[in-house]
Design a protein that fits this description.
This protein is 39% helix and 0% strand. The protein is an all-alpha fold and 220 residues long. It has one domain. The relative contact order is 0.25. Bound molecules: iron/sulfur cluster (SF4) (2 copies).
């Protein structure tokens, strides 16, 4: 259905989850962070200075988060590898795009899982249509919100045994947003629907995963 990767690739991302998302002080995060503000554990080169000890320093929530591929898609696909770390003017647009693309990828991941189940030809066709439109919508917040609603409508319309199977199949997936921890910004009533994942020089390469995770401070 989609050629997009639905797993985080932190090595090709500008630490977007560590900036765009808010989190609350809890057993998952040691302090409160508002949305759109870089985490204070993030270094100037986009590394997490506590990467190797996040659990013991009160940030286990960072280790279970997975943007489902939104981070690298925004950084590489929509911003051509540029980063807010090099140009602060990019911070807000990248954060906005990340929140929208995160929502699109969450819906795409559900549609992808649904495609493995016993759908009718008509259901397969509808799944493909919504998925293709979601992929094409990229960071268009209005389109993504509309297609997200269509995704849920499609999933609700499936036979109950298929829905049960789908829920069982996604229960093992990484958290796109640990409950009551990482969350998108609070919206006021006059805001649009939720826009909803290089350091100086080339983006850092690292095989590690997790928000910014991805990068240990000692790396850069
Ligand atoms: S992974 Fe990101 S959000 Fe978590 S502590 Fe490190 S810099 Fe902060
Ligand atoms: S988990 Fe965070 S650092 Fe990793 S790719 Fe996603 S947004 Fe980027």
């Amino acid at each position: 259905m989609t050629s997009l990767s639905l797993r985080a690739d932190c090595a090709h991302c500008a630490a977007l989850c560590c900036v765009a998302l808010a989190f609350d002080r809890s057993d998952q995060f040691a302090f409160h962070k508002p949305a759109g503000e870089p985490c204070r554990n993030l270094t100037a080169c986009g590394a997490c200075r506590i990467h190797g000890s996040r659990a013991s320093q009160g940030f286990p929530g960072c280790m279970t988060y997975d943007c489902q591929g939104a981070g690298q898609r925004v950084t590489q696909g929509l911003f051509g590898g540029r980063s807010w770390l090099d140009d602060v003017e990019l911070l807000q647009p990248m954060a906005d795009a990340f929140l929208t693309v995160t929502r699109a990828h969450r819906a795409l991941a559900l549609l992808h899982q649904a495609g493995k189940l016993a759908l009718s030809p008509a259901e397969h066709a509808e799944r493909g249509r919504v998925g293709a439109a979601l992929e094409a919508a990229a960071a268009d917040a209005e389109q993504v919100a509309r297609l997200e609603a269509q995704t849920w409508s499609f999933l609700r319309g499936l036979r109950s045994e298929v829905v049960r199977e789908l829920m069982a199949s996604v229960s093992h997936l990484p958290h796109p947003a640990p409950r009551r921890t990482l969350r998108p910004p609070t919206l006021s009533s006059d805001q649009p629907p939720p826009r909803s994942e290089s350091q100086s020089g080339p983006l850092r390469r690292s095989g590690k995963r997790g928000p910014a995770g991805a990068r240990a401070a000692s790396d850069g």
